Amino acid sequence: MKASFTVFLLFSLTLGYTQNGISLKKSAREVLQDSVLLLADQWLNEPPVTITSVSCKRSKGGIHDFYSEGDYWWPDPNRPEGPYIRKDGQSNPNNFNKHRKLLYRLSILTGNFTSAYILTKEKKYADAAVKHLKAWFVNNKTKMNPNLHYAQAIKGRCEGRYIGIIDGIQLLEVAQAVKTLEKYHAIPPKELIVIKKWFSDYLHWLTESDYGKKEKAHPNNHGTWWNVQAAMYAQLTENKNVLSECRQNYLENLLPRMAENGSFPEELKRTKPYAYSLFNLEGMVMNCLLLSNDSIDLWVQPSENYSVKTAISFMVPFIQNKAAWPYPRDVMHWEDWPVAMPSTLFGAIEYNRQDWYKVWEKAPHFLSPQKEELIRNIVIRNPLMWFDYLP
Asked: Mean pLDDT of all residues in the chain?
């Protein structure tokens, strides 16, 4: 991996407000296009690097199996060689996360190249994205197995956990990149079949394995993001049954976890209530974006006064003015938030809220290479790929 590869989207913006008569989509495109193209050209010759390039001796899986270790687990000072103990919200930098970083890289590169292709229709960007997709999902020597059985292991406790499925959110923009390139006939049919088969197999594991079933039932952001993942991979593989089940799960289980004022009590309990509230809101918005159709509009379900709009309305004032946050401050990374949140942008477009758009537009639009917490928790980095789902 070249030292020049950095992860940032790109610059702090203080731009003018949206002009009358110009759609919010068009305005957002104008905000994003220069940084998208600059980064795409910078990264164009980056070689594919998959999880087969690095391994951890503690992993119980093989070279093609994704492996990570739980963030909040630390050595026990009373038993240094014993099982790790949990410190919620405090990430241990010594835990193995190289596979996760490579997944970040895949997501960032394929999403960026695909966005550049949307803007220019230049074949070089599509080809660059396909190069990385082939390495991860087609090439038998370098591809990843379609499961996360060994994700978020804990030293001395388990070889992997169902909550490790949250690591798979980095595949969301990868899948959307594939779907977008397919739409433009910019991905070779032979490779497309194999890649979609990979995601179909992963979706089967996600919905049918014990890990997947437990993650689906998790009462906080894990359950929210399980639903987003299942919905995205079902969209890509045209699995109507899973899409229907995800819509039902959103209405019957996910939305009722929101308080009447739009907050998420399960996230407010955490040691990083601000960041987790933003993170869960992003997942809720993505559920509405992916699962709404001509028959059911989840953006307004079940009512005007109790829907994802309520959640965005609750959070936007604290994105605009974090000092007004009435709950405890996050134990780590408090100073790093907020940035330009995709949930604010997508909500602004869906509900035609100029005021929300201004909040997104004026926020810092970057992911610093020193701030892995932001990279890990801002999943939707390339809004241009998602505009087809919005009015």
From this structure: 93
